Amino acid sequence: MKLSKFKEYIIKEFSKKEWERCKNTYQYSIYSANEEEQKRLVQIDGENIRFMHNPSEEIQLLAVENGGYAIEYIDNPSERVKIKAIESISFSIQYIHNPSEELQLVAVRKNPLSIIEIKNPTEKVIQEAIKGIKYPFSSESILKHLENDLEEV
Question: What's the pTM?
């Protein structure tokens, strides 16, 4: 839907006053900002990207640099954007649909505990996460991915 149709709908169903109220929101100011202003806004808070329509890759990269979780609000992020998000916050892998083995490895190399957010890690990813364990209590995150072959009573 085009913004003009949305505007018509709001005015028709609610009132011109409600459209003016909508236009005066923080979200609308982000949506309607030019690219330079959008860059500034994602540098303040990466999650501001959620209010932008079709942001450029440059804006996407700035957003995830300033908070990897911003990837949750990006439709079809490029591989570069995915990597940057994981490098920023390894747990942001949870917002990447079917992450490749390479992306999984980036996450567990940054923080082995991020394996908890990976639905189907490959054997290589599990082994890499295990190698990264520095404290015994960290192993709890890996347990769900291990096949139990112990015959303990």
Answer: 0.86
